[in-house]
Amino acid sequence: MGSHRPEPEKNSTMELSRDMVREILVKLPTKDVARSRCVSRLWLSVVSDPFFRNLHAMASHVTSARTEALLVTERRVPGPNDEATVFNVSSGKAMCCVPIPSSYTIGNVCNGFLCFAHPDGPTAPVLVCNPVTGEAVMLPKAPPLVSSKVHLFALGFSPSTKEYKLFRLSTYPWSSSTSDQCVEVDVHTLGDTRGWRCRDSFTSPCRPANVSAPVSIDGKIYVLTLNWTHGTKHENPNRLLAIDVAAESCCTYHLPDYETWPYEDPTVGAFELNGRLCFVAHILNLIDTAITIHFWVMSPPPGNMDLEGHHRQPSWDLRYSFCTEHNYCFSTPWACWLEEDEMLCYMQYEILHLYGGTGEVTSSSNSGFLRWDKELQLPDAPLGSKCQFNIYGGYRPTLLSPLNFAVPPVQDDDDTNKHQFEHNMLRVLRHHR
Predict the structure, then answer these.
(1) Which fold, 66-302+309-405?
(2) Which has the closest alpha carbon to 246: 292, 187, 317?
(3) Helix 10-25, helix 41-48: angle, nearest 10
(4) What is the DSSP letter of 123?
(5) What region holds the F-box domain (predicted)?
(6) What is the Cβ-side half-sphere exposure of residue 307, based on CA atoms within 13 angstroms?
(7) Are 352 and 337 spatial neighbours (Cβ–Cβ below 8 Å)?
(8) Could you state, in order of their start, the residue ranges of all structural domains in the chain?
(9) Using one digit for the tens of pLDDT, what is the confidence trace for 224-269?
């Protein structure tokens, strides 16, 4: 009796809704998109789609977003795995808790990824984690090294090629010679099934060192260095190693001039500060207990080479200078970051220093130096907790999954020999086919 309107096709309506949701979400910040997963099954489906996650991760408002700081704690627990917990410093919220292989520690931060590596395992596979999604992946093992060499892993990103690359720099720990020595470079492009590639080694007047974590900014990885003779003669670092991620090439930059008493543990560090490299130097002397702390910000050189074929040098802008009476211990935790683009936060050992531009200039005897607005004592870690922590700046949250970079495992000789009997047995059993 009477006509009725045909029902719209559900599939076409669903696809239209997916397109609308995708168009809305791709314009939002990463944190808002991550929270939107709870809205509905449709929104969860869109956010979980690898195509959307890759599209959002490369959006300009994501790649140019203000960098943030993370609190990363590592707890040594019984068993084959330890655990790393990640908190966002600004919000105070826990982001994820990730199992990491025993004795692994964080190497550096690159965009939205954390890179964990074994400090004494040059061939141990590196673990890459995304704290927004809680996903992690083990990268392929690096090739063997000469046993007496030391190594350093650093993760970098090339905006021009959209590729993440893991670098392993390896050297002898020291030399009695003051001449340039060899630095070996191995590279793995994340997701490349060819695995590790041995790049041409280069000679350098200094060796890369774990003075502070490598810093990844705008397609470059910056690593502080030590002189080759530092093992026998204490000298202050005076050069910075710069790695071009896209070209896979290395050069050295001069650090700003500073004079301080040479210590076995260097009294300088390099950090990310609002998208730029920051060099921090503690100026010590043996006459009084006063310590001055200088913060320089680097402007990269325009172009790589000058007309004579030499690498151009960066310029350094002295941004802050402080005078303090504290007796510093140069070990982790050690960090520097900007809170909300205004508050300078500097954590050294057990003190957090804060400066928001309101600190007074010190007395005329130290004219020109600033005073911190606040100096806060950090809480002690629980006794017997085997917990270590640090703050890492330069973090930009992303939805990009590290699982995109998983490659099929390569069967090594040990596994082949271990199961040789089974392989021989199967060869006989299948012979009749």
Answers:
(1) Neuraminidase (2.120.10)
(2) 187
(3) 60
(4) T
(5) 16-55
(6) 0
(7) no
(8) 10-60, 66-302+309-405
(9) 998 887 666 667 788 999 999 999 999 999 999 887 766 666 688 9
